[in-house]
Amino acid sequence: MDALQLIVVSAGLRQPSSTRLLADRLAAAAERDLQLHGRDVRVEVIELRDLAVHIANNLVTGFPNAELGDALRDVEHADGLIVVSPIFSASYSGLFKSFFDLIDPMALSGTPVLIAATGGSARHSLALEHALRPLFSYLHATVVPTAVYAATEDWGGEAAEFVGRIDRAAGELAALLTLREPKPRDSDIEDEDEVIPFEQLLAG
To answer: How does pLDDT run across 4-36, given as a tens digit for each residue?
Structure first.
């Protein structure tokens, strides 16, 4: 069986970033669980901070450049997603939302998604339920029950509850992915933009 494609979208703005750190922890846990189920997986991380200017240009012009186009296709063709945003003003970041505004609204139908977020204090954790979960429900994705929020204090002592939440969420994502056949990749899909000769069209 072909390897599953797990795409991790991190919207952290700094380097190093606690958002990327959480994304990596979740991806490692999901990869471990999938391997325990006998499934091969390829993990790819998309850092939105590296695409910020391209995302803004796409919103204005309506066209992605090659790098952004590749990232959008990777997300749309992913077998599963881990998405992590910092929380600003009780919601996901503008960069995070702008990127997913460019995704085909039906491309993620049924795709398993693990949602996660980071913030300065635990009082922002409800943003996962009133902002991120509704966004991916709108995109028809299958959002795993457990969401993961990491406040600043969670990184100090590696609390058992925090570690357990990472493992539980990753396990739920892995369980959904284990039941899936890998999606067709670009090489398996006929190019929708292929130009058909006019004579061929007339011939039916």
So the answer is: 999 999 999 988 899 999 999 999 999 999 999
DSSP 149-190: EEETTHHHH--HHHHHHHHHHHHHHHHHHHTPPPPPPGGGS-
Buried b (16+ CB within 10 A) or exposed e, 148-171: bbbbeebeeeeeeebeebbbebbb
CATH code, domain with 31: 3.40.50.360
Q: What are phi and psi of 118, to 5 degrees?
A: -130, 155
In total, how many domains does the chain have? Answer: 1
**What backbone torsions phi and psi does residue 147 show, to the nearest 5 degrees?**
-105, 155
Alpha helices (runs of H) in the chain, residue ranges in sequence order: 18-36, 52-61, 66-76, 94-101, 127, 133-138, 154-157, 160-178, 198-202
User: Residue 141 is part of which domain span?
Assistant: 4-202
pLDDT digits (tens, 9 = 90+) for 142-153: 999 999 999 988
